[in-house]
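Board notes (copied after class):
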Amino acid sequence: MERFEGPGSRQGSGSMRGSDNASSRRESSTGAHVRVSLRELGRAFRERRRAERARRAANLLRGLEADLFGHRMPSAAAVVAAAAWRRDSCDAWCLRCGGTLVACERASVGCGECRGAAVELDAVVRLGRYAPPLSQWVPAVKTRAWRDMGVLLGQELGAAVLEAHALGLIPPPDAVVPVPVHWLRRLARGIDHTRVVAEEVARACGAPVVGALRVRMAPRQTGGRRRDRVSRAARFAATRDAPRLLGASVLLVDDVRTSGATSAALATILRAAGARRVSLATCAVTDRPRRASLPVRGQRPD
């Protein structure tokens, strides 16, 4: 028996095939969009990984460059000129401890912090209190191997020593002794910061640099408590060059005087080695909290 298919039946089957074709086209279009999106995501992921690898490689190279050749630092003279910085005049600090003087205090007599107390040093010469910009420059000499700034601060400190000597505040030094830095720290930092400063001071004063002190490895002092600094002062000792200081007027050079425990311990060692007088030349002095906010007396005019 034959099946009769009228025009309507053929039209219906044709519309069904058309809808199937449209659905297939939509599915293929959706699949193409998905494939394109996946390719774009993969490309973005690869680019991100490539950028991350490049960033890590750049950081590694910068670290190696800093370790091998030192940090890129600006010109010290330009930085100092831009800050309009001047070292303190000799009547701005206490000659016995280096602290900032206030009204009614005299440098030769001593300040309220040290008056009447025994001190190991004959005199202290400084550039300024440990506050900006010195509190930014001095650590950078040590931690970022900023030799240019160390040389400039050493020249300024040498000029301050000569000025103090001209005013009769300290005797002319026969020898300049830098506060020692352990060789592992020198190797890690790429600089012996106290010796850089001491060499410039010695050049200004016309005195030799004598490595009369050595130090054992100890934890960092930055941020330490006063009693910890006092206990760590025992890590210093005299070297074979110490007998050269017999009967000499010695100028000890340091970057920062904080509690005074280190300089006092070193002065005791130098006197035991035969030094007649021991004075301290330091880039900055940390004031006691009650003096830190007081204005510096005798600030040099611009």
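Comment from the instructor: The beta strands are 123-129, 175-178, 213-215, 236-238, 249-257, 277-285. The chain has nine helices and six strands.
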